[in-house]
Amino acid sequence: MKIGIIGGGSIGLLFSYYLSLRNEVSIYTRTQDQADLINEHGLHLVKGGIEQAPVLVTAAPIQEWSGNEDLTVVAVKQYQLADLITEIKVKAKGPILFLQNGYGHIKLLSELATTEVYVGSIEHGAVRENGYTVQHNGIGVTRTAVFKGEAGLLREITTNAPSGFPFFLESDFKEMLIKKLVVNSVINPLTAILKVKNGELIHNPFFFEIFKQLFQECAHVLELPNQEQYFQNLMTVCEKTANNHSSMYKDIENGRQTEIDAILGYLLELSRSKNIKAPLIHNYYQCIKGKEHEREGA
Ligand SMILES: NC(=O)C1=CN([C@@H]2O[C@H](COP(=O)(O)OP(=O)(O)OC[C@H]3O[C@@H](n4cnc5c(N)ncnc54)[C@H](OP(=O)(O)O)[C@@H]3O)[C@@H](O)[C@H]2O)C=CC1
Ligand SMILES: CC(C)(CO)C(=O)C(=O)O
């Protein structure tokens, strides 16, 4: 299968590496410089500290993406999607898979004319080391679901997944993304503001109180049907990633923009539309926006 991957960041490089083991992959980067680096060096993967055999993929700047591949995977950050969506709307001809965290981007996907639109939820941990090397630190799975159209191609990807990089096909895209949204809504802002690793949120009894209250508020706003199940999932992820720094913690530490708008921003909007009071969501949203503001030096 011919697969186009948009974005040469941590996830774009990770997916390009693994999917190229069984498919013909083209990666579309923001800059010509990164495309040149990938074409020159190939793609490198470091797994468990061990450098794997490099693979060859074709790289080109995004302007050269024509939307003709059998599948396009969009691996930019949620806040980078708004700038790209017009180009996607015009050029995308075939199925397209969006891998962003959060739920704020879902409204953009309804505007796409292409017949098959898929969404994914990534449980891997990856960090880009340089323009052509990615570290695969957290070995997990990729869950996918149909947002619009038929599941045929997702089934093919799932069946054909390379070893060590499994895909699962979920039946309900909303449930899949909301599960991840709950995890990111509680763990990400709390770890970024308290400056702790994920596990501290459940091991420190004082932080655990806030953790539970923030979960309760998210569950209330989302009107979750089975709260206990979502809470158990949140606890499991927190335990499994106890030693990790969340992506929001790292974004704040490195002075980068965060995905808070797609995460608590989405919940805040939802709470307003439902006329539900959500003081914790509001305050943690403001804390993270404040940290982003500091970065801008204003
Ligand atoms: N990293 C992880 O372990 C996980 C990430 N995710 C989710 O995956 C998504 C991607 O995250 P991640 O890969 O970490 O983010 P990165 O910031 O590492 O990568 C985003 C990439 O998109 C590129 N980009 C931005 N705009 C464009 C454009 N218009 N055309 C082409 N490329 C563009 C950026 O280019 P440039 O570098 O040149 O600016 C960057 O390389 C996020 O929503 C994240 O939440 C989910 C779970 C785990
Ligand atoms: C699951 C979790 C919380 C792992 O750190 C994550 O997705 C993130 O950091 O964005």
Break the fold down into its secondary structure elements and pairings:
Layout: E1 2-6, H1 10-19, E2 24-29, H2 32-41, E3 44-47, E4 50-51, E5 58-61, E6 71-74, H3 81-91, E7 96-98, H4 106-109, E8 117-122, E9 125-130, E10 133-138, E11 142-148, H5 152-159, E12 167-169, H6 173-194, H7 200-203, H8 205-222, H9 227-240, H10 247-253, H11 264-273, H12 279-295
Parallel strand pairs: 1-2, 1-6, 2-5, 3-10, 6-7, 7-8, 11-12
Antiparallel strand pairs: 3-4, 8-11, 9-10
Ketopantoate binds next to helix 6.
Question: How large a portion of the residues is in β-strands, by DSSP E?
Answer: 15-25%
Major sheet size, sense and barrel closure: 8 strands, mixed
What's the quaternary structure here? single chain
Basic shape: globular
End-to-end separation in angstroms reads: 48 Å
How many DSSP-defined strands? 12
Strand order of the largest sheet: 5-2-1-6-7-8-11-12
Counted up, domains total 2
Second rung of CATH, namely the architecture of the largest domain: 3-Layer(aba) Sandwich
The CATH homologous superfamily of the largest domain corresponds to NAD(P)-binding Rossmann-like Domain
Q: From the 3D structure, determine the CATH topology of the largest domain.
A: Rossmann fold
Cofactors, ions and other ligands in the entry = NADPH dihydro-nicotinamide-adenine-dinucleotide phosphate, ketopantoate
Mean pLDDT: 95
CATH class membership of the largest domain: Alpha Beta
Rg, Å, rounded: 19 Å
Please report the number of helical segments: 12
* Helix/strand structural class: alpha/beta
Domain Ketopantoate reductase C-terminal: 172-292
GO molecular function, one term: 2-dehydropantoate 2-reductase activity
Enzyme class: oxidoreductase
InterPro entries: 6-PGluconate_DH-like_C_sf (IPR008927), 6PGD_dom2 (IPR013328), ApbA (IPR003710), Ketopantoate_reductase (IPR050838), KPA_reductase (IPR013752), KPR_N (IPR013332), NAD(P)-bd_dom_sf (IPR036291)
